[in-house]
Design brief:
Number of helices: 4
Helix content: 25-40%
Structural class: alpha+beta
Radius of gyration: 17 Å
Shape: globular
Order of helices and strands: HEEEEHHEEEH
Strand content: 15-25%
Strand order of the largest sheet: 2-1-7-6
Oligomer: single chain
């Protein structure tokens, strides 16, 4: 097993901007999924949680956070897209660079749903700007 990079998750990950590999903004690190080592001595970050409900859940709104995540998953139709496996993180700096497309993250499905169900119904919204 290779030695992983040690980070202070609260300082170096939480509330950082997520950037997809094509340099598009892909959301924000709202919460982290941690898993204990086999001996229970250390915690490892296994996933980044981003999108509706993740931040609310982290800040103590457990019931509202769970409801928002379920509503988002139902509306987006793509399961738990707010969970980004940590093995797709390419770099950690002033932002967190992902090795995947922005469309694969939870924030993109929220944007698509908003575009299709709200903005798309506004008269004239489908026309290209002149």
């Amino acid at each position: 097993m290779t030695e992983g990079r040690r980070v202070w998750a609260g300082l170096q990950l939480l509330d950082r901007q997520l950037t997809a590999h094509e340099d598009r903004l892909a959301g924000c690190v709202d919460d982290l999924e941690l898993t204990a080592s086999d001996d229970g001595d250390q915690l490892y970050v296994t996933a980044i949680l981003s999108g509706p409900g993740a931040l609310v859940y982290r800040l103590g709104g457990r019931r509202l956070g769970r409801w928002l995540r379920r509503a988002h998953a139902r509306a987006a139709g793509d399961g738990d897209s707010t969970r980004i496996p940590f093995n797709v993180v390419a770099d950690i700096g002033s932002d967190v660079k992902l090795g995947l497309d922005a469309d694969a993250t939870g924030s993109a499905s929220t944007e698509r749903w908003t575009r299709d169900h709200i903005v798309g119904r506004i008269p004239g919204s489908r026309h290209a700007p002149e």
